[in-house]
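Lab notebook, bench 4. The sequencing result for the construct came back, and we need a structural model before the next group meeting so we can plan mutations. Quick request posted to the team channel:

Model the 3D structure of this chain.
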Amino acid sequence: MPAKDTNTRAWQVYGQRQIGHGYVPPVPETIGWGPWDGVGPGTEILGVLTGKRVLDIGSGAGHHAVHLARDHGAHVTAVEQSATQHERAVRHFGNRPGIEWVHGDVIEHLRAVEPYDAAYAIGTLAYTDPHELLPALRDGLAPHAPLIFSCLHTDLHGRGPSTSVVPREQQLLLRKDPPITVDMYVLAPLLWEDLLTEYGFQVEASDLLTAPSTDNPVRHQLIRARRVPDRPSLITSRPRSNRPPAPHAAIGVGAILVGQQGLLLGRHRRGTRELPGGSVEAGESLEQTVVRELAEETGLSARIEDVTLLGTLVDHVGDVVRLTVGALVTAWEGEPADQAGESIGDWSWWPLDELPDELFVCSAQILTAWRPDLPIDHPPTHFNAFAPAR
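Done. Here's the predicted structure in token form:
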């Protein structure tokens, strides 16, 4: 049976038993977030409620809603899924001012109302799938509105919370009646925080409420969160002027390919030996530039995922800041060959211990950044290694 159906039936039975016992919980002077009097904070953590619309999630017998309306001037909407629990509340407190009693599903209720100024749940939020309830609460609460709720952390058997969003079987215990089986989302505090953050809330505090008796293992969580305002559609940007900036920098890539025969180098028409590579074009990623230049200059085909960027080399040539990015290509297809219209050709493989003289400065800088042990002389440059990808 789905958890929702199990819990609806369980609370129906619970409410019917309490009606049979004639039990009506007294209206408290302050909210107790756990099952023990005097443990943890009280109503004050909800903030000033006078005149505010407050949602009571799983209002049960209704005594907390009466407290907020009577003592704090709140306009409370008490939503209860169980027909018998709703009956208990209306039977005893139905004529109290400042309270709207709603029998129904809180998720469906939130779809049809104006956003609330605050919402709270005492032990009840954990009976609904958070992936369904939290987005409904995000949409049903005003920006900056508090969401405060308590839920089970460690049960009577010492069983702690789960790190996955899966309901588990727990028992509702009444002194004179058999236990009632329910399905609860008993989640670790960090998991609750992750879920709340995912669905548009900021967690402000998370506390554990511990039983006064040292031999009682039960603990409850008290989580205080707040609805994060919706972000504006986009933050604007603009250029300083309509004129393009004065050109004063050049950026290019150089690709290291090492095969069984050594390192791939070509000869530029001006005589230097060079790695395949070239200038970055507008709109390209650095990896895309490596793949394009490799194909254009050598005819070799490579994939972007086989390109690893090593870092940037920065130096000056006259008044131009030169930025060179070295890349290691770990896989390719084809054999290098001269390409028509290109300024580099005569591609060949060179053993690393037999590299030729007159390497192009940028290629030399890339090679020593990759392998500092290579005996290559070149003008000084500043190398910034890229952090490895996560």
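Residues 249-385 form a domain with the Nucleoside Triphosphate Pyrophosphohydrolase fold (CATH 3.90.79.10).
Will bring this to the meeting.
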